[in-house]
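To make this tangible, we now present a fold written out as C-alpha cells:
***
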Amino acid sequence: MIAAEPPPVALPTGPNAPEVSVPAFVVPVVLLGALLHASWNTIAKSGPKKFFNSVLICVGSAVISILLLPFVEPPAPESWPFIGVSVCLQIAYYSLIAAAYEAGDMSLAYPLMRGVSPLLVAVASGPLIGELLSLTGWLGVLLICTGVMAMAIDAGRRSLPNGKAIGYALLNAGVIASYTLVDGVGVRLSGSPLGYTMWDCILAAVPLGAYALWRHRGDLLRYARGREHLALVGGAATLGSYALALYAMTLAPVAMVAALRETSILFGAGLSYLVLKERVGWQRMTACAVLLCGVAAIRLA
C-alpha cells in the first residue's frame, strides 16, 4: 500500500473563526497542479474533436484511478455524501460547458467561467464554511480574477458576443464554485485526498462516458483508436492536477486555492503559444502580469 498520506489540517471554521493564511509550500503545490490542468486542457484543444478528447481524458483518469485504488487509503465514510454531490455537479459542469461552446466561442466562454468562479468561492466561503480571508488574501483573489477576466475580454474582441454563451458560462461559474466548496469540505473529512480524488474521477467518468457512447458511439470508438496515449497522458494530468488542489485545500483556505488554481490559464497561454502556435498579444501579456501579482499577494497572505 502507498504510504499513508499526511493527515489534513483542521482549519478553523465558523463565524468567529480567525483569518487563516497559506503555508509557504502550498503555493508551488497548487501552481504545479495548475500547470498539469493547463497541460490536459491543451491536449483536449489540440485534436479535431475537442469533446471526444475531453471524454477520453476523463475516462483515462478513471482507468488510472481504478488501477491505483488498491494502493490508496479509501475516503472516510462521512466524505461519501460530498463525493456524490460533487459528481452530480460535475455532470452539470460538463453539460453546461458543452452548451456554452455550442452557443459561442470557447475562447470567450472558458476564461469567463473560470474567472468568475474563484470570486464566488471567496464570497461564499465565509458564510458557508466559515473561512475568512485577510485583506492581502482578498487582494490576491481579486487580482487573479481580474487577470483571467482580462483574458476573456481580449478573447471576446476576436469573437462575436453571444448572450446565450455568456449566460451558460456564468451559470457554469456557479457550478464550479459549488463543487469547489463541496470538495473543499469533503476532502477534509475524507482523511485521504488522493482516495477522494480517485473516486471523484471514477464516478464522474461513468455518466460522461455513457452519454458519449449513447450519442456518438461509432464516431467516438473510431476516434479513440490510436489515441490511447492521449487518454492516459491527459488522464494522468487531470488526476494529478485535482489531487494536488484538493490536498492543498486541506492545508489552506478553499478560496485561495481556487484562485491559485485558475493560474492554469497563464500556463495555458504559454502552452498555446509554444505548442499550438497561438498568438499572444500585449493585452494577454498584461493580463498574465496581473495574474502573477495575484499569486504574489496570496503567497504573502
